[in-house]
TrEMBL record:
Protein family (similarity comment): Belongs to the ABC transporter superfamily.
GO molecular function, one term: ATP binding
Domain ABC transporter: from-to ranges: 5-234
CDD domains the UniProt entry points to: ABC_TM1139_LivF_branched (cd03224)
Gene Ontology terms describing biological process: L-amino acid transport
Pfam families: ABC_tran
Keywords recorded for this protein, A-Z: Amino-acid transport, ATP-binding, Nucleotide-binding, Transport
UniProt key word ATP-binding: yes
Domain of life of the native organism: Bacteria
Name assigned to this protein: ABC transporter ATP-binding protein
Keyword Ribosomal protein assigned: no
Length: 235
């Protein structure tokens, strides 16, 4: 049995179009796995399928050996698999505190509290009564990640958290990752910048056209091989 997330032979369709074909991967507790691939490779579909927002065939998605595939998204979150979606999806009429506390509604027992989120993202401390529209993009992303942490996840999935943010702000977000992982959770991250994805992760998985084409340890990854796998043999 795998301690953490395991996905086996996952297939997903949009109508007749196959977006994922037999994708398998694991994310153990305490490790970061980065999902690398061009636009349309299927990264968001994979994360959304794991989180229960998208119907997938194969249906072998497990957390600590227990099948979670087929459960509703809130039930999967309650088991401990939580997605920070692309575009953040904060509640615009709620304050930062209220947005963070919503994450606690699917809360499992665990270490994450509002105070702990604020230790990881101190920039939010002064802005707890603000609405998301009054925050910078980076601060909004901190709220989205903080909201996910408030549910005490075992597996945290981050879909393109750096999209549209300035390099300095992206550095700040990634600098928080070790503190986030120190509670023993595992992370599956989608990051467009291959260099940053490898730096932030223990292992990488490259998707092309819905299929895993290359995977390995990030520290010893061959960038050329990844780029070739990413674009296909014709690149
Ligand atoms: N709601 C949808 N309806 C139909 N096709 C979709 C839908 N969402 C995604 N697709 C298609 O499924 C494939 C995989 O898309 P997906 O968004 O998972 O890729 P991605 O790797 O996350 O890309 P991006 O970096 O652009 O988000 C693409 O061909 C895309 O056009």
């Amino acid at each position: 049995m795998i301690e953490g997330l395991s996905v086996t032979s996952l297939t997903a369709h949009y109508g007749a179009m196959r977006a994922l074909s037999g994708v398998s991967l694991t994310v153990h507790h305490g490790e970061v796995v980065s999902l690398i691939g061009a636009n349309g490779a299927g990264k968001s579909t994979l994360l959304r399928s794991i989180a229960g927002y998208q119907r997938a065939r194969g249906q072998d998605i497990r957390l600590n050996g227990e099948i979670v595939a087929g459960l509703a998204p809130h039930a999967i979150a309650r088991k401990g698999v939580v997605l920070v979606p692309e575009g953040r999806r904060l509640f615009p009429d709620l304050t930062v505190t209220e947005n963070l506390k919503i994450g606690a509604e699917t809360r499992r027992a665990g270490d994450w509290t509002l105070d702990r989120v604020l230790q990881v993202f101190p920039a939010l401390t002064e802005r707890l009564s603000h609405r998301p529209g009054q925050l910078s993009g980076g601060q909004q992303q901190m709220v989205a990640i903080g909201r996910a942490l408030m549910s005490n996840p075992q597996i945290l999935m981050l879909d393109e958290v750096s999209l549209g943010l300035a390099p300095k702000v992206i550095e700040e977000l990634y600098a928080a990752l070790p503190a986030i992982l120190s509670t023993g959770l595992g992370a599956l991250i989608v990051e467009q910048d291959i260099g940053r994805a490898l730096k932030a992760s223990d292992r990488f998985v490259t998707l092309r056209e819905g299929t895993v084409v290359l995977e390995g340890a990030s520290a010893t990854a061959d960038r050329h091989a990844i780029t070739t796998a990413y674009f296909g043999a014709a690149a």
